[in-house]
Design goal:
This protein is α/β, with parallel strands linked by helices. The protein has 11 helices and 11 strands. A 6-stranded mixed sheet has the order 7-8-9-4-10-11, with helices on both faces. Strands 1, 2, 3, 5 and 6 form a 5-stranded antiparallel sheet that branches.
Amino acid sequence: MAKLFEKLKGKSLVRQNIESDYVLETKDLGISFGGLKAAQNVNLKIKKNEIYGLIGPNGAGKTTIFNLLTGVYQPTFGTFYLNGEELRGYAQDKINHKGIARTFQNIRLFNNMTVVRNVMVGLQHQPEYKCTLVESLLRLPRHFKVEKAMRERAKELLDIFGLKDERNNLACNLPYGKQRKLEIARALATNPKLLLLDEPAAGMNPHETEDLMNTIKLIRDKFDMTVLLIEHDLKFVSGLCDRVTVLNFGTVLTEGTAQEALNHPDVIKAYIGN
């Protein structure tokens, strides 16, 4: 029995090393709503520091995959790993604590809170910013120490995004492009290993789009970050993503570099028809 245990243990270690070559790996991931398979057999392998695109026509299943990766939905079949650790079955907050953060297609900020407070919300679950309930209720010295440290860290993040001077403004008063940046800054405050961006360039003018592209590259380099994004702007995708996977009707059409994928006959057909 002891020999069998050692043999199985050795196999497990080898498997762990293989999977940890990727920040994100999905294996036959999918979900069924009743008899409708919204996504099936989706296999992704995303390496550290990659900017990876998940693209496809409307209704292809892209946001469904994001919802599976963040615990909004639980997979009907398949599974997924973050740095080799299986996260299937975890709740949303647990997945976030493990290292996956996201933004949304429709910006979700705390509109009636200041810009700096929005980022501080993202810092609250970090161990160095923890306070006990008693410390917070009684306003003990540690409460003020932690509050000051959170504010300083939030200001540092805002400075990276060019939002430091806006820190005391209400989030709802920021122009659209800056709201997008604030949402990304708040996601980064959770200290993720993988950042999911759901149509980050949606609604932006060309100047804002170019600025966002540079911001995402900065995030990748400065934070040693891996990014998975959904985007309909194919020019944006081509200029930013290292590799892409194309979905249609919940299944993978192809994967490769942006140019390879976008020139694939099945992808052209999916986007523009016969």
